[in-house]
Each structure stands twice: as C-alpha cells, then as structure tokens.
Amino acid sequence: MKSSFLSLGLLISPLVGGELAHPVPAADSALRAGSLYILDSTWIDQNGKTVVWADSLGTPRVVALGYATCKGVCPRIIADMQRIGKELDAKSKVRFTFITLDPANDKQAEMRALAEKHQLDPARWDLLNGDEDALLELAVALGVRFNRLPNGVDFAHSYLIAVIGPDGRILHKWTDPKQGPEAAVAALRNLPDP
Question: Environment class of residue 151 by beta-carbon count within 10 Å: exposed (0-12), middle (13-18) or buried (19+)?
Fold first, then answer.
C-alpha cells in the first residue's frame, strides 16, 4: 500500500509555477470510510515517546504539517492552531498535532525547541517525527502538497490545518490563511459527547 501512496505522492508534489494550488486533493479513497486512523504508522514525539497513529482512535485531532526551521507559513499555522485551542473548553480532549516535513533534521531536540518557542502545552500538543513513508502516506491522505526548495533546507508546502474526528475522518480543512478559525472550532464543538 505504501508504494501506491508513494506513486500518488510523486504525482501531486510538483508545484505549479511556484504556487501551491488549492483546493488540495481529497483523502485517498483507499482509506476505509475515510478514517486516517487506519494508517499503519509510528511516530516519535518531542519528548521521545512513541505514538502509534492507529491508537488515536477515539481522539479528535487538529493536524498540520510543517517543519521546525520554517520562517514562512509554519509559525502562522501553529498560531492558527493555537487560536483554535483558545476557543475550546480547557477540558477538551482534542490533541494538537504538528508533524514535521523534515524528519532527517527535525529530531526530538528540534521539536522540543519548537514547542518551547511557541509555548505549546505538552498536555495538548504532539510534535511528531516519523519516517519518510509514514510522512508521505499521511500527507497524501490529508492532501498536503510539499516540495523541498533548491536551497536544500526549506520546503514549499500547503497551508492546511485538518480537524480530524475521533473516528479518524476529516471533519474540516482550513486551507485559506485569510479565513478565521470559526469553521474548525465549530467542527470540534459539534462532536458528540464521548
């Protein structure tokens, strides 16, 4: 299955005229009932803890992809995720998940430094690093486009914050940074009580 995601990823990763086209692709049809939680991947968080993606079943998540050294859109993505978090009840079970596009360079120390820089509460935030296959598989499923720039350090990538329900289905995609967090917040507030 990973080879099919790899092939699909190679087809969607090129950029058109240096711009990222929207709307982003829909979740891959191979995902049963659209659940992202069937993906077989394992990640390491900013504290060195192993996170088995399939174990997320039952947990709503707000997910975005970026990288620790980004000086472009990534700080905005994190700030917008924080805006969503501020609108939720303090007892909310929502996990905020930032996954690196640069697993070779964003190790535990870099992810922990990113969390400290943005004052991300470890009780609510997971900053994840995984292997290239897991990254590409999830990026394709979410519809995130990315490409390493010629400088070999930076990435061009989609602005996308995904709201994922406890069953792993995508409830909302925030793809336009000009819009506010209202639709994402509404999707989370409309979740049934556990």
Answer: exposed
pTM of the model: 0.81
Residue 171 in contact with residue 40, Cβ under 8 Å? no
Cα separation of 170 and 188, whole Å? Answer: 11
Give residues with Cβ within 8 angstroms of 111, minimum separation 6. 45, 46, 68, 100, 127, 128, 129
Tokens encoding 7:
């092939």
Which tens digits make up the pLDDT trace of 77-110?
Answer: 999 999 999 999 878 899 999 999 999 999 999 9
Q: Decide: 24 and 16 in contact? Cβ < 8 Å.
A: no
Q: Is 152 left (phi over 0), alpha (psi -120 to 50) or beta?
A: left
Q: Does residue 29 contact residue 43 with C-beta atoms inside 8 Å?
A: no
Q: Which residues, including other chains, have CB under 8 Å from residue 50's CB and lie 6 or more apart?
A: 42, 43, 44
Q: Residue 147 — very low, low, confident or very high, per pLDDT cuts 50/70/90?
A: confident
User: How, if at all, do strands 155-157 and 146-148 pair?
Assistant: antiparallel
- At residue 193, the pLDDT reads 65
